[in-house]
Amino acid sequence: MNYNNLILNFENEIAIIKINRPKALNALNKETLEELDLAITDLDKNDKIKTVIISGEGKKAFVAGADISEMKSMNVKEAKDFSLLGNQVFNKIENSTKIFIAAVNGYALGGGCELALACDIRIAAKGAKFGQPEINLGIIPGFGGTQRLTKVIGKSQALELILTGDNIDAEEAKILKLVNQIVEVEDIMEKAKLIAEKIAKKSAPIISTAKEAVNFALEHPSAEGSKFEANLFSTCFSTKDQKEGMQAFLNNRKADFKNE
Ligand code: CO8
């Protein structure tokens, strides 16, 4: 499949998606979101892939937001459809059985910050900037930002970013737990791949089960979460990989998971 606005590469069990509109700082227009939707749907069905890295092409931006030139003349219905499309794509990332790593190589503003937030792990380059500047355009975040940012950094920090429209640098984002790690920009893909490779060595059904269990915590009270966890935990024992993992430990060797 050829994409106009994405570059998709594969390295063993890792897929690497780069948003490829560097002249517009990788702004997300409708076509890019539709391509991302297709790519993620395909990857989700691909048994060979365990982790997906998302980054931005070029030196300056991860994604500088939704495409303002495309949004400017939208009417209310078009704006809602656009918002729903973005939410659909980002929900697919969040609910995917694959583990998504955002390699934030530069500006992650508006829809770009929201894309990073939908990923499971976020690595930032030293010079990266995060923010929800929609307020300066007379709108609010529309690709899940009001929801995910609040869950990740808490209500008052989220509201400060959303209401002031201020950008923050990678160091501040790390303090707010918006990013896991900060690395030099030239090392960001290597770092993301290291994490992706480490995860890809584990069992596919077990990593997706772990993601499902952690995601559940964000939406449900602890009592329900404990029951859900016990159910998912016990399903691990129906896999060959659980047997292999425990046998390998007892035999003092590395587990050779078959993803079954
Ligand atoms: N949309 C469209 N084009 C963009 C965007 C964008 N978000 N960001 C940058 N560009 C374009 C510029 O227009 C410029 O194009 P050209 O060269 O043709 O003039 C090119 O990229 C380079 O940008 P700059 O010259 O501005 O580069 P600077 O280094 O001076 O500045 C910034 C970089 C600070 C990142 C600046 O470009 C900027 O502020 N960009 C906009 C950031 C922003 O406001 N993002 C939020 C957008 S709104 C959003 O994401 C809402 C998501 C939910 C939508 C819900 C649907 C209804």
Automatic annotation (TrEMBL):
SUPFAM superfamilies: ClpP/crotonase. Keywords: Lyase. InterPro entries: ClpP/crotonase-like_dom_sf, Enoyl-CoA_hyd/isom_CS, Enoyl-CoA_hydra/iso, Enoyl-CoA_hydra_C. The keyword Transport does not apply. GO terms for molecular function: 3-hydroxyacyl-CoA dehydratase activity. Pfam families: ECH_1 (PF00378). It catalyses: a short-chain (3S)-3-hydroxyacyl-CoA = a short-chain (2E)-enoyl-CoA + H2O. Its EC number is 4.2.1.150. Pathway: Lipid metabolism; butanoate metabolism. It comes from the Bacteria. Homotetramer. Belongs to the enoyl-CoA hydratase/isomerase family. This is short-chain-enoyl-CoA hydratase. It comes from Halanaerobium praevalens (strain ATCC 33744 / DSM 2228 / GSL).
